[in-house]
Amino acid sequence: MKETKNARFRRVAEARVNKIIRMLRLLGNCSGTNTYAYDADAVEQIFTALQIELDQARKRFSENGRPGRKRFSLSQAPTPDTVSYPHITLPLPDGTHLRAVAYADTTYPAINLYLLRDGEPEELVCFAEYNSEHSPCHELCIGVYTSDAEDTQYYGPYRPERETKYGKGD
User: Fold this and answer.
1) What stretch of H or E contains 124?
2) What pTM value is reported for the model?
């Protein structure tokens, strides 16, 4: 009797998921500092690459597409933003991604928001930074870029309207 497509999917998917789980457990064995030496950057690079592949695999199920495949390597120079600083990447329905990166700089701590498109360099969209050179209550600033200009198209202090005992905006 011929195997149905659904039965074949279940058999193959279960075997592959179990293989991936076994491999992830083996990867976890690399955390043993008695045998291996590594730094936080390498660990972040590994898990960022794995998360990107998971996101792309999930996307293929909704689009029946085959995104380009890249081979992972620790020897390739990583994008500093994805390795050196805390970040989160959000896949968008159109296949692009937004990445928020937190920079704990002592002079200008900031969060940058990047747009990522396949095969293109990441594009800085906007940022929020603390700028101690500004007057009190104006240190938190927001900058916005457009794709057709090098410099910020908007840069100004963020000062939310606040209700106080003296009224709005105090």
Assistant:
1) strand 123-130
2) 0.48
